[in-house]
Design a protein that fits this description.
Number of helices: 8
CATH superfamily: NAD(P)-binding Rossmann-like Domain
CATH architecture: 3-Layer(aba) Sandwich
Largest sheet: 7 strands, parallel
Bound molecules: NADP nicotinamide-adenine-dinucleotide phosphate
CATH topology: Rossmann fold
CATH class: Alpha Beta
Strand order of the largest sheet: 3-2-1-4-5-6-7
Distance between the termini: 44 Å
Helix content: 40-55%
Length: 254
């Protein structure tokens, strides 16, 4: 049986460890036949990501701290000889002290940092990669319900996700005429390194499992399969969209 991403090359940003949503996505993309290019942020992560990349049979591992224009330019240069069909942006960061304070106390610097890493980076990555993207290319970013609803303790990251989703729509509009689709997956809460920075994260997991229509939490593999759909030709008519993979939690009023 033919695989959904056979013959496609995918650039995946945001694999930190085996719990990362990006890692589950990379596994699913490999299963479906995609050639993988992974990135890591800084030397600290290099060995771990190279180890995971070897396990996944990835073609290349490239450095990319999204706050460094030079690294983004180098990434673009390294990709210039080939072509990219799919990009997955699975990156976010906010200072723990900003997440732990009441939202009204968010510092100017902390607000700017969360926006830079978690939202502006989608624009910067799209600009760097679009020149080597094929027609029928796809860019997918990871978002969360906190973009549009108030989720306790999500605070400055919720505002960054709102910006990310808006940036996704503007990019979809501009890159659409070149055949490039841009979407977000809004994932239900999953215990990862980033999620642990949210105070009381376990109570969010418990609440979702109790109230979501499917009465359970989201599995990383479910997010990954939705990412396969968006990157594949099955998703060819979908752009500018936020696809919820959250056991249906987003439809609940209370
Ligand atoms: P994760 O494993 O910690 O992944 C976050 C990634 O962002 C890490 O690889 C991290 O690299 C990277 N990153 C941070 N700053 C960066 C920078 N300056 N340049 C390049 N990369 C940078 O956690 P995750 O939960 O899988 O998060 C992936 C995405 O899913 C994020 O956008 C997150 O907001 C979103 N999401 C998560 C959940 C959830 O509940 N887990 C739900 C919905 C959406 P380092 O580790 O090297 O810093």
């Amino acid at each position: 049986m033919s695989r959904l991403l056979e013959g496609k090359t995918a650039l995946i940003l945001g694999v930190a460890n085996q719990w990362s949503l990006a890692y589950a996505i990379a596994q699913a993309f490999a299963r479906e036949g995609a050639g993988l290019l992974l990135t890591y942020q800084g030397e600290r992560q290099r060995q771990t990501v190279e180890g995971l990349a070897a396990e996944l049979g990835a073609r290349q591992v490239l450095p990319c701290d999204v706050t460094e224009d030079e690294e983004l330019a180098q990434l673009a240069e390294s990709l210039r000889a080939g072509r990219v069909d799919a990009v997955v942006h699975s990156i976010a960061f906010a200072n723990r002290e900003d997440l732990y304070k009441p939202f009204v106390e968010t510092s100017r610097a902390g607000y700017a940092l969360a926006q830079e890493v978690s939202a502006y980076s989608l624009v910067a990555v799209a600009r760097a990669v679009a020149p080597v993207m094929t027609e029928a290319g796809s860019i997918t970013a990871l978002s969360y319900l906190g973009a549009t609803r108030v989720v306790p303790n999500y605070n400055v990251m919720g505002v960054a996700k709102a910006a990310l989703e808006s940036a996704m729509r503007y990019l979809a509009s501009e890159l659409g005429p070149r055949g490039i689709r841009v979407n977000c997956i809004s994932a239900g809460p999953v215990k990862t390194a980033s999620a642990r920075a949210i105070r009381d994260f376990s109570s969010i997991l418990d609440h979702v499992a109790e109230r979501a229509p499917l009465r359970r939490n989201t599995e990383p593999a479910e997010v990954a399969d939705a990412a396969v759909f968006l990157a594949s030709d099955l998703g060819r008519g979908v752009t500018g969209n936020v696809l919820f993979v959250d056991s249906g939690f987003q439809v609940m009023g209370f």
